[in-house]
Specification:
Layout lengths: L2 H9 L3 H41 L8 H20 L1
Length: about 80
C-alpha cells in the first residue's frame, strides 16, 4: 500500500477510528524519539569519557594513517597465519 492509498483509506475511517489511528502513530513516533534520545545520551556519555581519557593522558592518540597501517599489518598477519 502506498502512502497516498493509506491516507485515502484513513479518510474513509470514522472520526473515532481516525483519532485512534492518529494516537497509535503518534505513540510510535514518541517511542522512536525516546530510543533516539537514549542513543544520543549514551553517545554523549561515551564522548565525555573519551575526552576525559585524552585530557588525563590515559590514552594515546594515534594518527589516522598510522592506525590504518597497523590495521593492514594485523589483517595481513592473520591472513598469513590462516594460509599456514
Amino acid at each position: 500500500m502506498t502512502l497516498a492509498e493509506l491516507i485515502r483509506a484513513a479518510r474513509d475511517l470514522s472520526p473515532a477510528d481516525r483519532v485512534r489511528l492518529a494516537d497509535e502513530v503518534m505513540a510510535d513516533l514518541e517511542e522512536n524519539a525516546e530510543d533516539s534520545t537514549r542513543v544520543d545520551d549514551a553517545w554523549h556519555a561515551e564522548l565525555r569519557l573519551r575526552i576525559a581519557e585524552v585530557e588525563d593522558s590515559r590514552v594515546e592518540l594515534v594518527d589516522g594513517r598510522e592506525t590504518m597501517r597497523l590495521a593492514r599489518a594485523r589483517i595481513a598477519s592473520r591472513r598469513a597465519q590462516a594460509d599456514m
